[in-house]
Design a protein that fits this description.
extended; mainly alpha
Length: 111
């Protein structure tokens, strides 16, 4: 069997993306309309899987980050390491078999 350079590159990229840490924030920017649409779509995807209490917590965290970003001279991107650390702590609460699911979900939304 002969493997072309393109096939080899695709396999390497696939292996590297499988090993990515789902709690690690990637360098990503979004337009305002994409940001709004992604929020709505993300909430619709999990509506039946979350309890009302979980939905309330997610809403509060989302609102907190949005309000923080609105404050003048506050650059969340400059403190990305702190946010990543918080995400890693939350990720440790999930059972090992469940940690693969958020990774797969984030890979589908990353472009």
């Amino acid at each position: 069997m002969r493997i072309t350079k393109t096939d080899l590159k695709e396999m390497i990229v696939e292996l590297l993306t499988e090993q990515e840490d789902p709690a690690r924030l990637k360098q990503k920017s979004m337009s305002a309309s994409t940001f709004v649409r992604a929020g709505k779509e993300g909430r619709q995807d999990v509506t039946g899987e979350l309890t009302p209490q979980e939905q309330g917590i997610i809403d509060q965290v989302d609102e907190f980050l949005l309000n923080l970003a609105k404050i003048p001279n506050v650059d969340i991107n400059a403190h990305k390491a702190v946010v990543t650390r918080a995400l890693k702590l939350l990720q440790q609460l999930a059972p090992k078999q469940q940690q693969a699911a958020p990774q797969a979900a984030t890979q589908g939304t990353q472009k």
